[in-house]
Amino acid sequence: MHELVIGIPRHGAGPREVARGSEIWRLFQEIAVQASAAVGWPPERYRETGTSFVVYGMTVQHHREVPYGQALQARTWVHDFRRATLTKRQIRLSLPDGTPVASCTQQWVHTDASLRPCRAPQALLDALPVEHPDEPSIELPELDLLDPPVPVFAFSFTVWHVWMDPLAHVNHPQYVDFADESLARALHAAGADPQGIVPVAEHVTFKRGADAPRQVTVTTTCVGRAGDAWAFAHELLDDAGQVCARVTTLRRHVAGDLAALLGLGL
Fold first, then answer.
1. Is CATH 3.10.129.10 correct for 2-127?
2. What is the pLDDT of residues 55-74, one digit of tens each?
């Protein structure tokens, strides 16, 4: 178990002075990196050994919004490590008094320098022992599905070279930005405030890295709801027609019913 105190950076707060969903994902990534470094595996050691971890799936639940300046208590541990290649990491964020803020389960694959899955070296396995394997993983809330789903929006963009992460592709939290940007553009087109989106939960399955200067198209469909949050399925396709990622987001809006603000007639 690794624990630390962390908070969102100033640029992570939007016009409402709270973190976007993707900024919580960036915190989770930083927590995972710091936890690895604390046991002797900082990023430079992975480079020296010619290996890395790549996220292939991640699920997050947001329990409350986070303002800039709020100190957060983070706890993280390795949940399992299958075939010395596939591993889950659990991360929990809370207020100093223990009030939950956000929870996530990350699914990582250990890769070689060419990003092909491979067994982790024994020194790394020894440094990352499995803890609390019976702790439940984070899942999306059960959805009341629409039949049929309702198309919401689609847009395309060119991936920027300056977005590339150390593995030379778009870093995984940015896919949440792409999904929320599609929803924000739909709200703007409907005359509603695109900054009023409240993150409730997300799940992303990553298929291939989006790298510059490819063009990526995001299609967004409303697929159901859970309580007062609406669920949206987002598919990201590159210009070769290949799926980069599939994103499910659950969202509310500060101004009222999100589907009504979008004019979906639901």
1. yes
2. 999 999 999 999 999 999 99
